Amino acid sequence: MARGRRRKLLWSKLYTFACGTSKFEADHSHIGGPGFSRVAFANEPDCFDAVNQNYGSNYVSTTKYTVATFFPKSLFEQFRRVANIYFLFTGCLSFTSLAPYSAISAILPLIVVIGATMVKEAIEDWRRYQQDIEVNNRKVKVHHGGGKFEYKEWKNLRVGDIVKVEKDKFFPADLVMLSSSFDDGICYVETMNLDGETNLKMKQALDVSSDLQSDSSFQNFRAIIKCEDPNASLYTFVGTMEYGDQQYPLSPQQLLLRDSKLRNTDYIYGVVVFTGHDTKVMQNAMNPPSKRSKIERKMDKLIYLLMGALVLISLIGSVIFGIATSEDIQDGKMKRWYLRPDDTKNTFDPKNADVAAILHFLTAMILYSYFIPISLYVSIEIVKVLQTIFINQDIQMYHEESDKPAHARTSNLNEELGQVDTVLSDKTGTLTCNSMEFIKCSIAGTPYGHGVTEVERAMARRKGSPLLEDEQPDENHEHPKPTIKGFNFDDERIMNGNWVNEPRSDIIRMFFRLLAICHTAIPEVDEDTGKISYEAESPDEAAFVIAAREIGFEFYQRTQTNISIRELDPVSGERVQKTYKLLNVLEFNSSRKRMSVIVQDEEGKLLLLSKGADSVMFERLAREGRNFEAKTKEQMHEYADAGLRTLVLAYRELDEEEYKKFNINFMDAKNSIDADREEKIEEAADSIERNLVLLGATAVEDKLQNGVPECIDKLAQAGIKIWVLTGDKMETAINIGFASSLLRQGMKQIIITLEEPEIIRLEKEGNKEAIAKASKDSVMSQINKGKGLLSSSNDGSFALIIDGKSLAYALKDDVKNLFLQLAVGCASVICCRSSPKQKALVTRLVKAGTGKVTLAIGDGANDVGMLQEADIGVGISGAEGMQAVMASDVAISQFRFLERLLLVHGHWCYRRISSMICYFFYKNLTFGVTIFLYEAYTSFSGQPAYNDWFMSFYNVFFTSLPVIAMGVFDQDVSPRLCLKFPMLYQEGVQNALFNWPRIIGWMFNGVCNGVMVFFFCTTALQHQAFRKGGEVVDFEILGATMYSCVVWVVNCQLALSISYFTIIQHIVIWGSIVVWYLFLLAYGAITPTISTSAFMVFIEGMAPSLSYWITTLFVVIATLIPYIVYSTLQMQFFPMYHNMIQWMRFDGHANDPEYCQVVRQRSVRPTTVGVSARIDAKVNQLARKVHHAVHSP
Amino acid sequence: MNHANGSAVAGSSSGSGDDLAPRRNSKRPKYSRFTQQELPACKPILTPKWVISVFTLIGVIFVPIGVAALLASNNVVEIVDQYDDKCVPPNMTNDKVAYIQNATFDKTCIRTLQVLKNMSQPIYVYYQLDNFYQNHRRYVKSRNDEQLRKASQANETSGCDPERTANGAPIVPCGLIAWSLFNDTYKFSLDNKNLTVNKKGISWKSDRDHKFGKDVYPKNFQNSSVIGGAKLDPKIPLSEQEDLIVWMRTAALPTFRKLYGKIEQDLKEGDSIIVTLENNYNTYSFSGKKKLVLSTSSWLGGKNDFLGIAYLAIGGLCFFLAVAFTVIYLVKPRKLGDPSYLSWNRNPAGN
């Protein structure tokens, strides 16, 4: 590596992002002032001043709680739920004499439930704590004095420590880089954990310190770093370093952030400036917006409804109780003398019956608390966590290539996955792989490349030949060749060095040279094989460099000033090395839409190499450089039509004078500290990127991900609407639409665009108001026209395609509803050229406008807004980084997994949670009603029918596990059938399992069961003897019998209503009943002081009595018969879709294709998009033709 | 076949997993039937066959039980005599409460019971009270179990309000329940011979052994200004005061019977039994009825036709349902997957 130190100074000139300018920028004047007060004494963390600063340690804690705050904080969280407050209220009341049962038994379930939630919190927090410990105890080499470095735990780092970080290690804190193993003090950093970008970033130390390259050089190193206070901005940093009586400015270029990784560099030295929670990554940590599912919101309403019911029946009870109490003393005579109404305190005082009634109301509120399922919340939480585990563990949602399983990041929304009405999808990286393949190019007006794109295949299908439909699109397997990622180019005219024989070989050479030079990629040489791979900022760029390599222009080395390539010399036929001196890089950005480099070749010729979008490039061509313009344009149009991304390549030679002038301008602009610095840079760049000579164009295929068309088809069959929101050009978007079957021939396309001559004319004039008005009018009229079209035809399906500019107007408050109406009427909607903000706005519009569940899926940082706005955000954990995943609720690695996530897991979770909630209310109502009815028989005195502990454990031991098992394991239909009959998904979208009739139905069932249990029990075990020995039924026996019946009934009811019996179900359902008896035995065996009325009740009283068993059998069967009859009739005459499928499976017809087709055809609403729709349309067309042929004479 | 499918997939995938074994830190979820939700399961659905056979089965089981229960109930001979009104002298019927509360009146009352059917011993003697809320919360709670159990806890009267103390000393047994102890007494004679009523063993053994102490004697009982019900012999420990034990096992419902004793002697049809009873207990205040019940017992207990009838009814209903479903099944076999049943297919135009 022959890199002289003299040339180092040039570095800052080369990259605009390398702004290690020698000048102090404006911000540096703030140093030492407010907001910029941090001082780090490098290498002297122990000196007096440093200790005085008292900066926090590098210990990082990501836990929500500490030992001290855990209880108050998590308790506070718990009591934000109304139900829990209610239970706390009743719990407190139960310590007074008002309590119908012992305080401990009233408060214990609450403690258990809250305890369980808190334990869950604690475990989660403990896990975080363990991670923290792991991180905090990682070791790093720290200068220990005397030029010796020793390992030290991360947590013990202090501001001012000098650390040495080695290759592929994480930085332990935010460091100011002093030097690296490279002479010029650069290093490469991977910031995956911060911004998710996988490309390497270059950082550079200050010149003054970059020669401190050995441990020993730090023996007497002293420097003072002053910089800004901790903040969350990852891309800014302002500071100075005082070193050797001089001040040097520090920029983000010297800052190495915690949690990023050192790559391709053997080691670096750095000074710790921010530790622990002061680091930028920690400052950035924040919680995503919390979302709640529709079902849970509805459940809250249900709880309120039940609370209302509870108040109502308490009120009824209180009134009756008040009347009964007031009548206890009439005319000075006691009626129920055995209650001693003459000698009471408030609670039962006939003289103050109203007070007694009010107090009784409180008692009743406690007593009837069983109407509110206390354990519902915690059960749902447990269930959801377990469901999440199943989603995460699903092997069929694991992507081998990227080694990523599905990851449900929030468990709140599981059931919402089963109710998605509209999917809003990003295109690049979501529908497509975002792995670009160089597939075609046009050089000097000649098209090269034989590859057939997915879109072309789709278009071939579109143009007719139904035979293609059946053909497997995977033709690649036919001619197996070693596939190179990013390269799918095949043309013998160019490959294998044949290009030298082409007519315009000079242009071809320039073309590929440009591809090899004009980029910001970094080569990585595999030491074993000598193979070179590239780290590039974007996959397009990588594809270009790879293409150049494959053609024979191998870019193999980048130094700070040089780019070296190996290329074929057309004359000698040998590979020669060429080194280009890299003078300037004019970076790519979205407004420039182009990138250029200025290089000097070995002969000293100055070249400007440029590549960019057609819209900006063609206008920059020199008059004499337009030789192939027409042909190139035509070919580019074809490429775009085939769904390819195109770039125009052009170059020009510069003369020294011109370059010097430019360089001065450019450096000035870069070094300026004004607000318009960017503008100045752009202006300077713009001035030189002119008079270019056209070379040709590249076409890169953005490949559709595996299985995307099939997945879209399934989703469409499931009745899910799919909108594509993309930043791409309209043509590209439409093509992808065709490729993915969102669009098809025969579908009427409503295109809303502002690319109209009139608008364009106005735009040229530049009158902004006029543009806005005309645009808006135009959009309005187009929307209205579309709506007219929509309402006039009733059979055709429509596709709406709208571009970003029009979207801006369509999303205005007064237009958006109109737009939404149109969009909802269309089968597919494609928004192209849309900005991230527009994506989020469209999502909000759909969410709020339709009131249905929306799911947004995307992979990039530009999708974050959309993901957070949607009801569910699904992130694709692909190559483009982690931002989307971080903002998402569920992360999957491939779009096609959405099918399984929604149709299988979503459907199941929805079904499970909704059945579970219904059942919960059912079982609590059944129990509550028996208590209430018994109340009526005690003249509403507030006496519970059951032993205190029976009641407490009802929700905890005897009925909770089966319902949790149902929530976790129940499957109405196997995954295979879920996918075979996607229409099943509509049960969730239509909310067929959690609508009011169904909820009320379950509640009604609960009330009926309660009533039946009570009256059957009390009538069967009246006042007569209930066993041979003449013993009569007393309070204890009746309570325990009734309780047994309730436990039996609710568990058997559950067994009847689940459709999937594994060993687990058997264990928990029958186990719960067994546990009840075991409990009766155990509880009855302990001393009567504790067991009170349950003492020996089972072993002595009930078990030997045949009437107990006969009564139980009778009550259970009789109570369940109505439900059996109901569900049989329902199955017979009003089956729901899952019933039909169940039935089909049961009859063994599930594998009979004809049979399935019949069911599917007859029960599926005609779908409007997707492969199946396409086939259907074709079949219809054919049928019509045949029809015509037959009927026309 | 579903499982077979699943395991085949599993087999192949785990195979490929082995190939990748050297790849460390793979995040591939481990395959298990549990995590893939493929546990073997039975998936019952309510098919007509299943439903019909279940209903038939229930019918087959229920009808015989019903018949047996009804027979058992019918075999029980029960003599019920309501005496509350009858035992008030005719001149006092307008103010029964005054009569019952006046200790000076003679409360003796003679009743004659006709035995209509042979009754084999043991014949259980019950008293039945009506409209008496022994399950009233104030009443139920008014006792102290500790005090009843242990002599040392005699002063423990918490919860016994308002019958905790009398004349400054704690009452044993305290509380409303004990205080309102039933105090009617019955003497039976047949053909001028006394029928002995065995009052031993009428309470639950567990109560005698564990809830009422053998060394706990009534103290200061019924000494307060207002006297409730029966008095207790202070020389007999609570564990032997079976009337009290029976009484203190509170009834579940406002109409209840309590065991008074057993007549261990067969009675023949046509026998008429003379009952000499002391009508002491005040049910007139709250217009409750008092009944004297003599009953034999069967394997099912006392006389109650409900279970028998209910079993027969449900059994019959199940037979009926089985037949009905069979008819439906035969006459109108289900249409498989008829989409018109699906609510969201009713208006196919709606999106």
Structure description:
The complex is a heterodimer of chains A (1193) and B (351). Helix content of chain A is 46%, strand content 17%. Chain A is α+β, with helices and mostly antiparallel strands and 1193 residues long. In chain A, helix 11 (454-462) packs across helix 20 (730-739) and helix 22 (768-792) crosses helix 23. The longest helix of chain A has 40 residues, at 897-936. Chain B folds into 2 domains: 44-76 and 303-345; 78-296, no CATH class. Chain B has helices at 2-19, 48-75, 96-101, 137-141, 145-149, 176-179, 205-211, 242-248, 306-331, and strands spanning 78-82, 108-114, 123-129, 165-166, 169-170, 185-190, 193-195, 197-198, 256-263, 272-278, 290-295. In chain B, a hairpin with a 2-residue loop joins strand 4 and strand 5 (169-170). Residues 1-23 and 343-351 of chain B have low confidence and may be disordered. Classes of the chains: A alpha+beta (1193), B alpha+beta (351). The interface between A and B is large, with 117 and 112 residues. Chain A: InterPro entries: ATPase_P-typ_cyto_dom_N, ATPase_P-typ_P_site, ATPase_P-typ_TM_dom_sf, ATPase_P-typ_transduc_dom_A_sf, HAD-like_sf, HAD_sf, P-type_ATPase_IV, P-type_ATPase_N.
Keywords:
A: 1193 residues, alpha+beta, disordered N terminus, B: alpha+beta, 2 domains, four-stranded antiparallel beta sheet, extended
Topology, please?
The complex is a heterodimer of chains A (1193) and B (351).
Chain A: H1 11-14, E1 38-42, H2 48-53, H3 67-78, H4 82-93, H5 103-136, E2 139-143, E3 149-153, E4 162-166, E5 174-180, E6 186-190, H6 192-195, E7 200-204, E8 223-227, E9 239-243, E10 246-250, E11 255-256, E12 261-263, E13 267-274, H7 280-284, H8 294-326, E14 329-330, E15 333-334, H9 353-367, H10 376-393, E16 407-408, E17 420-426, E18 432-443, E19 446-448, H11 454-462, H12 467-470, H13 505-517, E20 522-525, E21 532-535, H14 539-551, E22 553-558, E23 562-568, E24 575-586, E25 594-600, E26 606-612, H15 614-617, H16 629-641, E27 644-654, H17 656-671, H18 677-688, E28 693-704, H19 708-717, E29 721-725, H20 730-739, E30 748-752, H21 757-765, H22 768-792, E31 798-803, H23 804-810, H24 813-825, E32 828-832, H25 836-850, E33 853-858, H26 864-869, E34 872-876, H27 883-887, E35 890-892, H28 897-936, H29 948-958, H30 960-969, H31 975-980, H32 986-989, H33 996-1020, H34 1035-1057, H35 1063-1085, H36 1088-1091, H37 1097-1102, H38 1106-1133, H39 1137-1147, H40 1153-1163, H41 1171-1191
Parallel strand pairs in A: 17-29, 17-33, 29-32, 30-31, 31-32, 33-34, 34-35
Antiparallel strand pairs in A: 1-8, 2-3, 2-4, 4-13, 5-11, 5-13, 6-7, 6-12, 8-9, 9-10, 14-15, 16-35, 18-19, 18-28, 20-21, 22-23, 23-24, 24-25, 25-26, 26-27, 27-28
Helix pairs in contact in A: 3-5, 4-5, 4-9, 5-29, 8-9, 8-28, 10-28, 10-30, 11-20, 13-14, 17-18, 19-28, 22-23, 22-24, 28-30, 28-33, 28-34, 30-35, 33-34, 33-38, 34-35, 34-38
Chain B: H1 2-19, H2 48-75, E1 78-82, H3 96-101, E2 108-114, E3 123-129, H4 137-141, H5 145-149, E4 165-166, E5 169-170, H6 176-179, E6 185-190, E7 193-195, E8 197-198, H7 205-211, H8 242-248, E9 256-263, E10 272-278, E11 290-295, H9 306-331
Antiparallel strand pairs in B: 1-11, 2-10, 3-9, 3-11, 4-5, 6-7, 6-10, 8-9
Helix pairs in contact in B: 2-9
